[in-house]
């Protein structure tokens, strides 16, 4: 088969007989050429891992990792655009001179969409650890930047612009890449373009509210985007906060302070009933242009990206649950559809406010349903599906009623992979490469979890397990790093902590939260027991 005709993704082929009479065929051997993950001699060499007391969650974590692996492709294998009337051809250039780059899906669209990276990249960094493909995908955004500072919505061969949210996804994705890779040279190389991109988007801040007024209305497929949109403003808040961190890494403290001031001005406005907060409902409205929808993306990102006031956290989490059906979260801003991209935001939103049980339930309900579905791939994650369980995602809103157009290996649907490592295991990075880290596990209904990932500083791993009267926590991280332990505790009284049998000082006990904090945990290996 010519390279241009390789369909991309999945370890299978289809055989058809070209005759209408009986034919006996004996297959003695099948060999498939795989085009994904082109720079890896060993396709099983993941740098991250995860294991827990729930086998379904384990399968979901690895299915997310495998989906992302399928989406790392050679740069000469993009899907041609405009599309062919019949068949397919995958020999378009994806815009990088590197050897591998992330695309949205292994079969469709086989192009780098910036918005997808917001969910895909954090999951990559805790699983496959493919920094090369991530770096090339992000560098592409800066290479294609317009003179005005706008970053593309999608790279070659599509070359789409006109999305404020996807523009910001590239900036947030840059932070996530630096956090895990420690590649500050990448930031220095692109710093002028990064600042121009910030200036481009902050020029759209409304006065006097300081909130983003969206004019680049391209987005992930929601019915409408524009005005003082909640999801876009949550992304704007995150863009400014992470931008400030990167400005400090570059040695610009005054610039960082300015961006932080802009962020908190925006936050105050968005949390006001004068703008998008609806105190009667306990959720954010979609925008100043549409008060009839309480969106899944906007309310989820308000939690995940910390735009929402802490006073609203539980109300928002409660409201999101009202959209759940038996096979996932119904999406108000795209009716009749269930969208794992947005559900990925939701599970992280619940986890961000300590609602681990809710997040785990939604993961099992949606991703577990698809993974066990005999009509799915049973190994990767689908782009989206309808509330009735059919694979007609966006069939009536852009996909021309074509159920076969739905991608069944979409990186934007891999949020559980990152969520389980980052929140449930609880191993989080706070400084480039992991020089600073936090261990903040959330138990949910699990009895043990272990996992880890790798950065240029070395391997980071952790494990927690419940024991009678408390639990054990083990971590093993590179020497020379400094961490903070934020650990569950009973609300009935102050627990005790011991390290290798010796009592360990607890710096903070927050009884109302049921949480303790141990500061300045040294890198290396340690086993801690918490007794209630």
Tell me about this structure.
Strands 1, 10, 11, 12, 13, 14, 15, 16, 17 and 18 form a ten-stranded mixed sheet that branches. The protein has a two-stranded antiparallel ribbon with strand order 2-3. Strands 4-5 form a two-stranded antiparallel ribbon. Helices cover 33% and strands 17% of the residues. The chain folds into two domains: 363 residues, Glycosyltransferase (Alpha/alpha barrel), CATH 1.50.10; 104 residues, Maltose phosphorylase, domain 3. By secondary structure, the protein is an alpha+beta fold. It contains twelve helices and 18 strands. The model has no long low-confidence stretch (mean pLDDT 97). The termini are far apart. This is Glycoside hydrolase family 78 protein.
């Amino acid at each position: 088969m010519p390279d241009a005709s390789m369909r991309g993704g999945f370890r299978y082929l289809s055989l058809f007989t070209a005759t209408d009479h009986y034919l006996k065929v004996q297959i003695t051997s099948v060999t498939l050429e795989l085009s994904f993950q082109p720079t890896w001699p060993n396709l099983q060499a993941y740098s991250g891992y995860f294991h827990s007391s729930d086998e379904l969650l384990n399968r979901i974590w690895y299915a997310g990792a495998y989906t992302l692996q399928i989406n790392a492709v050679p740069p000469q294998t993009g899907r041609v655009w405009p599309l062919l009337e019949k068949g397919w051809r995958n020999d378009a250039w994806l815009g990088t001179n590197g050897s591998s780059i992330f695309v949205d899906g292994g079969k469709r669209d086989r192009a780098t969409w910036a918005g997808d990276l917001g969910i895909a990249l954090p999951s990559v960094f805790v699983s496959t650890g493919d920094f090369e493909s991530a770096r090339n995908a992000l560098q592409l955004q800066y290479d294609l930047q317009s003179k005005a500072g706008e970053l593309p919505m999608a790279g070659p061969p599509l070359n789409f612009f006109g999305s404020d949210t996807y523009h910001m996804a590239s900036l947030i994705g840059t932070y996530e890449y630096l956090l895990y890779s420690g590649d500050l040279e990448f930031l220095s190389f692109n710093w002028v373009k990064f600042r121009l991109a910030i200036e481009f988007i902050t020029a759209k801040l409304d006065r006097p509210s300081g909130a983003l007024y969206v004019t680049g209305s391209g987005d992930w497929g929601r019915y409408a985007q524009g005005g003082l949109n909640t999801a876009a403003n949550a992304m704007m808040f995150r863009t400014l906060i992470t931008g400030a961190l990167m400005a400090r890494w570059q040695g610009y403290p005054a610039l960082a302070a300015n961006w932080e001031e802009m962020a908190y001005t925006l936050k105050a406005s968005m949390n006001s009933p004068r703008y998008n907060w609806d105190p009667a409902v306990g959720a954010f409205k979609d925008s100043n242009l549409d008060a009839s929808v309480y969106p899944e993306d906007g309310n989820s990102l308000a939690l995940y990206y910390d735009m929402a006031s802490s006073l609203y956290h539980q109300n928002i989490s409660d409201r999101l649950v009202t959209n759940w059906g038996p096979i996932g979260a119904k999406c108000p801003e795209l009716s009749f559809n269930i969208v794992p991209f947005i559900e990925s935001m939701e599970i992280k939103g619940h986890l961000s406010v300590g609602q681990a049980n809710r997040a785990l339930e939604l993961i099992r309900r949606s991703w577990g349903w698809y993974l066990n579905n005999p009509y799915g791939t049973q190994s990767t994650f689908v782009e989206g599906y309808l509330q009735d369980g059919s694979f007609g995602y966006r069939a009536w809103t852009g996909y021309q009623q074509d159920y076969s157009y739905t991608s069944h290996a979409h990186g934007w649907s891999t949020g559980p992979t990152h969520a389980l490592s980052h929140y449930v295991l609880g191993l989080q990075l706070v400084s480039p490469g992991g020089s600073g880290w936090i261990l903040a596990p959330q138990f949910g209904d699990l009895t043990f979890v272990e996992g880890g990932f790798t950065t240029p500083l070395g391997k980071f791993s952790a494990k927690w397990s419940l024991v009678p009267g408390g639990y054990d926590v083990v971590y093993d991280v590179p020497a020379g790093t400094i961490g903070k332990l934020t650990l569950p505790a009973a609300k009935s009284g102050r627990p005790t902590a011991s390290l290798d049998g010796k009592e360990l000082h607890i710096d903070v006990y927050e009884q109302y939260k049921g949480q303790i904090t141990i500061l300045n945990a040294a890198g290396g290996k340690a086993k801690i027991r918490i007794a209630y």
